[in-house]
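Task card 7
Instruction: Convert sequence to structure tokens.
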Amino acid sequence: MDKREAFKAIAGQVAQGELSFPTGAQVALKVRQALDDPDCPVDAAARLIQAEPLLSARVIAIANSAVYNRSGQDITDVRVAVTRLGFSTVRSLAMALVTRQMAGKSTDQKHLALVNKLWEHTAHVASLANVIARHVTHLDPETAMFAGIIHEIGGFYMLSRAVDFPGLLDGDFTDWLEGGEVEIGRQILNKLSVPESVAVAIGAYWDGFLAMPPVTLADTLLLAEGLAPVPSPLHQLEGGEAGEVTAANIEMVIGEETLTLILREAAEEVSSLTAALQF
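Output:
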């Protein structure tokens, strides 16, 4: 089966609701669904999180990051961490675990390297989106981080299907976008009940148009993508796409002085958040 046929088969399965998630991702999805209820008791939320060790570790790590722990006093209790972060951030972390584990585990070195680099890229974009939302576009930083976490969800899912469709990893990935990665990503966002505003922003991000001045969530993602030191291994986008949003033209959009200030003030925060988001 060639790539085009594989894309069509995967897209058809997703459209029919045939999504296959690893066990760890399923647990994280349950946590996210529970936290969708604003009346969920903090103690109950903490118990759910503690059932997934990786998620527990990330909740503690984020709570101790420079962004959320200005006092510098270590937080070691999940309940305290949840209280400090709030349900919105914890839901984002649960979705981060879903996204990272969606690709599954593999002994194939090429597959493993792609998954690890894609997640490293995702963590940088999510962290930068959080900072850019606060300093440039003046949007909710938690929503921006959430959008950054899931902006490559189609790619992660496609990588997870490489076991069933080995041809997906043949050659380069220039045809993934044309083949349906974006459309599959949109369908997955819909199946996971991602808020429409975030799904629409991710779709606009793929269109690659950066407004001047940048004001939208899509603009935030494009700026974060352009500043991320680790590019996506799946698509080096060109001409009219997100990949042409480089540090040089970001400087033209927001100004050299502003960009320098943002990068200087954000350096510690981005480093802290990125490290905490590494699963």
